[in-house]
Specification:
Blueprint (H helix, E strand, L loop, with lengths): L13 H13 L20 H12 L1 H7 L2 H7 L4 H9 L9 E5 L6 H8 L5 E6 L2 H10 L6 E5 L12 E7 L7 H14 E12 L9 H11 L5 H4 L14 E7 L4 E7 L1
Parallel strand pairs: 1-2, 1-4, 2-3, 4-5
Antiparallel strand pairs: 5-7, 6-7
């Protein structure tokens, strides 16, 4: 997909978006932003999360069990570090811009982002589960550049064009199709024109991948929404009528995993 001529969507917000882009480039104060489109009340735990993933993310014993990097690495067939770096390398070795991480991640994913923050870098992390935010808070040093927020990924509270980079690391496969569409729509909304959305998640493996049928059975039993990503491209869940500058997809490990980099 491509943008309309001129580089930005042709709407009444053109001047504001252009001004914000220039201000970020020169580190000058940003102009006032319009309020976010969603109410800022505390979100409830979604029913799909309570019903399907209570055992992985909501029960205190689950957090104690899965917050082991060796276990995360085992679940990803020894690829955790590779996939983590695959995502973070898009941001560069030094981050001097605002970054949004949508959903907490077991292991040292967020700590590695924090280690790359430069003087002007900022990291905001959102999650709908308070227990996940509390767990992440324990893993991070006190740092004014890092903020954690209790928000639903499908109804973020941030103003438009708030971030230069937005990360979704193994989130979309856990969401029903409607929530997945809303999450991607929100990611597009809060990422500035010219910014990047980085997605790492499951993908349909090659026919010759020896893990294909094992993973199909595991996902069908434990992660019922994940097989959507075997049957549909992630691009199919992007909001219609919202142009992007580019979308680049790469796969690894016999196509079991994919990375999508969207330039807004």
């Amino acid at each position: 997909m491509s943008r309309r001529p001129g580089g930005y969507p042709q709407d009444k917000n053109n001047k504001r978006i252009a001004d914000e882009t220039q201000c970020r480039k020169h580190h000058c104060p940003l102009p006032p932003q319009k309020p976010p489109p969603h109410p800022t009340s505390t979100p409830a735990i979604p029913a799909y999360l309570q019903d399907t993933y209570w055992w992985a993310y909501l029960h205190p014993n689950a957090v104690r069990l899965f917050e082991r990097e060796w276990l995360v690495n085992l679940i990803l067939w020894g690829n955790f570090s590779r996939l983590r770096n695959w995502a973070l390398d898009v941001l560069g070795s030094r981050i001097d811009h605002p970054v949004l991480q949508i959903a907490c991640v077991y292991g040292n994913f967020t700590q590695r982002i924090a280690a790359r923050l430069g003087e002007h870098g900022k990291l905001d992390v959102v999650d709908v589960a308070p227990i996940q935010l509390a767990n992440l808070r324990r893993k991070l040093p006190a740092d004014p550049r890092i903020r954690l927020h209790h928000q639903d990924s499908s109804a973020l509270h941030f103003p438009d064009a708030s971030f230069d980079s937005t990360l979704l690391f193994f989130l979309l496969h856990e969401q029903p199709a409607g929530v997945r569409r809303a999450t991607l729509s929100e990611a597009m909304r809060v990422t500035r024109p010219g910014g990047k959305i980085v997605i790492v998640d499951y993908h349909q493996p090659k026919a010759g991948n020896p893990l294909r049928y094992i993973m199909q059975a595991v996902l069908r039993m434990l992660e019922p929404f994940a097989l959507d990503l075997w049957q549909q491209e992630i691009a199919a869940y992007l909001p219609s009528g919202v142009p992007v500058s580019s979308l680049v997809k790469t796969t690894c490990f016999g196509n079991l995993y994919q990375k999508i980099v969207i330039t807004v």
